[in-house]
């Protein structure tokens, strides 16, 4: 499956990102363009690899709006073939979701997934060249900035709020996997006691309350959260709204990238964003008001949301999802300081909201 018709197989090594391949990929959306050369400027390693590429363009490419510098993102790491599902989700994010959503995202010039190669590649505008402000996990936001971003997320969630058809076979988002179930399957298969104990004994484990150190509790909690997610409003979520995937555009508007779209509970995404984005003291003081603000934003979109107390119950339950994500997030994907900061924020929120008690009552 290639979301944008283009050249296959997709390259799985950086050496195979040639000018000829780049030209063919960009021509899939802008027929007739040409490149006379290309040069890799830098490579940023992580969960996925981001490669900044300078393009020597012909007149047709310039006229078509192909910029002189782009970001190519795909799976070029040792772990990448095992994470092809993440590359597929990001291709869907740009090819299928971006044209419909209120989320502001980088302009995409190519989005392709090659099932045989287990590779997904997107070619995006270089936000650095545009001068946006990138957010950072170790620089929490003020509550008013989180409120503004929740307004945009509410508009995004309203597109699919409690709608089954888009996710049914033949629907626009039939490809969307379940947000909670994917992590639940990962936990049940990968998180053996020795692996879990290694994370608990790390710096991030030390930053969390010992009340959340039990693997049995965590896997039971994930199972209950999966079941809960099938009884409450489900939406197409961005899927990874932590600060490292966010920016402020040059006009001050919130921007989003690195989306991993799934179908899941709206309040899981809200809890993930609010708790990750705020300093612990600000989250303690403002999370209920921010959920109320999100609720009002949904109502402005014509949605009839649940009562605030029910939304806060869901918020408190789904804090365990964010906690689990960062407690067991490999240091290859995020630096240890970032995993530790997030684990601490979620642990503090889980204590404040009695997440253990809320999940026990499910």
Automatic annotation (TrEMBL):
Name assigned to this protein: Phosphotransferase
SUPFAM superfamilies cross-referenced by the UniProt entry: Protein kinase-like (PK-like) (SSF56112)
Domain Aminoglycoside phosphotransferase per the UniProt entry, residue ranges: 138-296
Species the sequence originates in: Novosphingobium album
One Pfam family here: APH
């Amino acid at each position: 499956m290639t979301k944008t018709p283009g050249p296959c197989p997709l390259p799985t090594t950086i050496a195979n990102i040639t000018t000829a391949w780049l030209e063919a990929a960009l021509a899939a959306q802008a027929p007739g363009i040409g490149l006379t050369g290309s040069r890799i400027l830098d490579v940023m390693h992580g969960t996925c690899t981001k490669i900044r590429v300078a393009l020597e363009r012909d007149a047709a490419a310039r006229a078509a709006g192909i910029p002189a510098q782009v970001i190519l993102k795909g799976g070029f790491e040792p772990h990448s073939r095992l994470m092809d599902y993440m590359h597929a989700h990001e291709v869907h994010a740009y090819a299928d979701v971006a044209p419909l959503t209120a989320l502001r995202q980088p302009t995409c010039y190519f989005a392709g997934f090659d099932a045989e190669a287990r590779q997904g590649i997107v070619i995006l505008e270089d936000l650095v060249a545009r001068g946006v402000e990138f957010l950072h996990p170790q620089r929490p936001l003020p509550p008013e900035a989180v409120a503004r971003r929740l307004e945009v997320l509410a508009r995004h969630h309203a597109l699919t709020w409690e709608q089954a058809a888009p996710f049914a076979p033949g629907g626009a988002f039939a490809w969307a996997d379940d947000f909670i179930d994917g992590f639940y399957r990962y936990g049940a298969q990968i998180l053996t006691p020795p692996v879990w104990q290694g994370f608990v004994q790390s710096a991030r484990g030390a930053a969390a309350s010992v009340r959340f150190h039990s693997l049995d509790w965590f896997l039971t909690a994930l199972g209950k959260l999966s079941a809960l997610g099938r009884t409450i409003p489900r939406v197409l979520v961005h899927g990874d709204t932590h600060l490292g995937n966010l920016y402020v555009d040059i006009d001050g508007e919130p921007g989003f990238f690195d989306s991993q779209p799934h179908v899941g509970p709206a309040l899981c995404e809200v809890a993930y964003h609010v708790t990750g984005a705020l300093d612990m003291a600000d989250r303690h003081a403002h999370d209920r008001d921010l959920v109320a603000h999100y609720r009002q934003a949904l109502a402005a979109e014509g949605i009839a949301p649940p009562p605030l107390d029910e939304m806060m119950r869901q918020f408190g339950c789904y804090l365990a999802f964010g906690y689990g994500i960062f407690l067991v997030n490999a240091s290859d994907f995020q630096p240890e300081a970032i995993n530790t900061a997030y684990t601490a924020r979620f642990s503090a929120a889980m204590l404040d909201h009695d997440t253990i008690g809320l999940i026990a009552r499910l």
